[in-house]
Amino acid sequence: MQASLSSRPNIACRSQFAAGAAATSKRSRCSSVVVAGLATEKDNPFAEELKANAKHISRRGRGILASDESNATTGKRLETIGVDNTEDNRRDWRQLLYTAPDLGNYISGAIMFEETLYQKSREGVQFVDLLKEQGILPGIKVDTGLQVLPGTDGETTTQGLDNLGARCEAYYKQGARFAKWRAVLKISEGEGPSSQAILENAHGLARYAQIAQQNGLVPIVEPEVTLGPGAYSIEETAYWSERVYSHVMRLLNEYDVLLEGILLKPNMCLPGLDAPSASPAEVAKYTVRTMMRTIPPSVPGIHFLSGGMSEEESTLNLQALQDACPNSPWSLTFSYGRALQSATLKTWQGKEENWGKAQAILTALAKANSEAQLGQYKGPHPAPGGGRILQALRFGGAGK
Amino acid sequence: MSLELIETAKYLSAPGKGLLASDESTGTIGKRLEKAGFENTEEARRSYRELFYTAPIGEAGISGAILFKETLGQQAADGTPFVECLQRQGVLAGIKVDEGLVPLDGCPGETSTRGLATLEAACRGHVAQGAKFAKWRAALKVGGGCPTEQCIETNAQQLAEYAAVCQACGLVPIVEPELLIDGNHDQAAFADASTRVISRCIAHLQRKGVVLEATLIKPQMIIPGADCTGPKADPSEVAQHTLAVMRQCVPAAIPGIMFLSGGQTEEEATINLNRINQEAQQSGGCPWSLSFSFGRSLQASVLKLWSEDQGEASKARCREMAAALAHANSRAVLGKFEGPHPSITSQQGSLRETFRGWRTDV
To answer: Where do the TM regions start and end (chain B) (predicted)?
Structure first.
C-alpha cells in the first residue's frame, strides 16, 4: 500500500484550525487534573457485554442491515413504488426484510427506527424476537435528525442528546443491543467542512457514544463525509475524512468512550459526483489509508455506509478493501441501507405475490456483501449495473 | 523523497529490530561517566561511544542509533566517522534535535522542550552529516495534579511541529512523549495519563499533516511509579496495560512503537518487552512493531565493564556486552527472548536517575 508524503491536496480551507482549537482548554489552567482515560472500563458494568457485542457484530463474513429510516424517509421510499406511508405498510416492509430466509447467515445486526423497535409482525411476534431467531442483534437509531448550523452554508449538526440516557435504557429493555447516531459533514466545490461543523458533530458523537455505553448499547459512531455535487477529487475526500475522523477519535478518547465497545460507520473515499468515478482499487487505496491513519486497532469493526453508491459498487468496493488491507486490525465490513434495500423494494412493489422474490433478492445482496467482506465475492451481482442511489439531506427531522 | 522516509521508518521498525539511544547530552552522559569514575572530557565521551558503534550491533538487531550532535561529527580511533561505522553494519544514524527541557511557566514541576526556533537549520545540517532520523523528547510528570492540560497541550504541539519540520527536511521523526517513572502513582493512573497524552500527541500530528507512515513513537511502557508502594507489576500486567493503551491510541499507520526503558533495569526492560510481544501475538497481533529505543538498558553493563578496565581486552568484552544486550532485546521484539540475560547491573536495582537535564549547557 503506497502512501504519498504530500497528503494535502491544493484546496482552500474554509477556516483554519486555531492552535488550541480545543478551546475549552482556556478554562483549564494548571489546577485542572487530567483524568481517567480508561476509567469507563472499570466503572461500567456493561463493559464486557459491550466488547462482546461489538466483536460479535463485526465478526468475519457479517455486516449490518441499516433499516432505520425515519417514518418520513420511509414514506419517500414507499412512494416510489406507489405504497402509502402508513404504519401497517411500514411494518410490512420491515417484516419482509427481517424474515428473509437465511438472512442471519450474512447479517449480524439490524438498525431500526424507534417505531420499528416496538412493532410486531402481522402474526403478533415482536420484531426483536424475529431478529433474535435469525441470530441478528437489534439496533436502534437514537438521533433525532439534522439541524442546520446558523451562519454556515447548509452544514448541519445532529440532534438527540436530550433525555438520551433514559431512551437508551428503555431501548435496552426492549431488546436493542446497539445504537446509531448519524453526523453529516459536507464537502462542496473546493471547500471542506468548517471547523465549527467538525467540532460540533464530533462532540455530539462522543457524548452520544458515552451515554449509549453507560446504558449497555454499543454505539455505532457515524461521521459521514457525504458524497455530494462538485468535481472534487478523491484525495480531497480523503484529506477531509482524515481531519474529521481525527477529531472524532480524539474526542472519543477524551470522553472515556471504551473503543473496544464501539463500531465505526464511516464513508468510503469517493470523488465528488461531478468528477470521474474511481475504480474499486482506487477507492480502497484511499479509504484504507484514511482508516490506517486515524483509527486505532482497539475499534473492532469498521462498517462502511453505502451512501449513494450503487448496489454493485458497494459490493465491489467492499471486496477491494480486503485486498488493500489483508491484515487489517479491525474488521472492514458494511452497514448498508440503500445498497441492500433498493432492489428489494423495487422487486416487492408493495405486492404480496412478490414477497418471496423480494426476500430472495435481499438475502442474495446480503450474501454478496458477506462474501465481499471475506474477499471471496465472485459475481454476478444480484442487482447489477445500477446507478448512484442518491438521497437529499433532511433537516429538522426531530425523529419523526 | 517521500517514499524514502516511509521506507526508512519501516526499516527502523522491521521485525526483530530496535534502536540504541546513545544521544545523551554532554551534561547527562557526563554525570554517568563521572559516576563511573571518568572525567567528562570529549575524548572520554568519544571513546565510550566508540565501544558501541564498533561493536557488531547491526547483526545483533540494531537498525538505528540515536546520536547526540557532538557524536554525529566524531570518529573512531582509526579515523572512521561514527556515521560510517554504523552505516557499514546497516545501522542508520539518528540525531537528537531537541535542546533539553525548560520549566513550564505557571506549572510547577512541569516542562516543555526547547529547540524549535533553530530546528530547520539544524535538521538540514544533520542530514548533510548523514542522519536519517531524529528524536525529540518531551517529559511529563504523573501525579499530584500532573500532567496538566497546559503541559499536555504545549508538549503535544511542540512534538507535532518538530515532526513536521523533520519530514520536510528528510528525517523520520521519533516522537517521544515520556511519562516519567518518578512518583508513587499506580499502574492504572499511569495508563490513564498515558492514554490522554498519547492520543493528544496523535491528534496534533494529524492536525499538522505529519505523515504517520513515516513517523515512529517512543512511549514508556505502562508500569507503576518508582515510588509506588504497591507490589511491582509483573510482566504480564505490564504487557496487558501497555497493549490496551497502545491499541486505544495509536493509529495503525504508524509502523513502530519503540518503547523507552526509562529507569527499568536492563533485565526488566527486556522481559517486559518480550511479554508485550508474546501477549500481542496471542491476542490477534498488532499493526505496528512493538520494539525498543533503549538507552540505559542497552548501556549500563557496558559502562560498568568499561569503568573497571579500559584496556584492549576489556574493549572487546565491552563490545561483546553491547551486542549481547542488543541481541537480547532483538529477541524480545519477536517474543522469543530466553534467559539468562547478559546484564551485570540488574542486581543493583533500577537505573532511575534524578538528574533530568534541565540545564541548558551543552
So the answer is: none
